[in-house]
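Hey team,

Filing this mostly as a record. A colleague (T.K.) asked me to run one chain through the structure pipeline before their review meeting, and I want the input and output archived in the tracker in case anyone asks later how it was produced. No errors, nothing strange. Just documentation.

Input sequence:
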Amino acid sequence: MKNLYVPYSGKRPALVSVNGHKLLILARDRETFEDSLDVVGADRIRRVDAGSSENEEEFVLKRLAERINAGVVVAASESDFLDVISSLKEQLPWIH
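Output structure:
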């Protein structure tokens, strides 16, 4: 079973805005967020079961994106959250 870690603010996933894109950044390891919760305005991290196959994980991510009406980004393992944000700022075009 694969797990994903999601920053939460209260009862809702903590979204970030990068170049006008509303995003939820998930991680494969809890440590990605542990020192950066305040950056996203989150107060805790929740573990989400992403299934045991790529198809199940894709289904979970798609359903989550639809539910929160935002893009979903899965950070690479052992990534630093601030590095993920910097990378997204460089790669994503601005939208208005």
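Quick notes for T.K.: The chain has a mean pLDDT of 93. Residues 20 and 36 are 21 Å apart (CA to CA).
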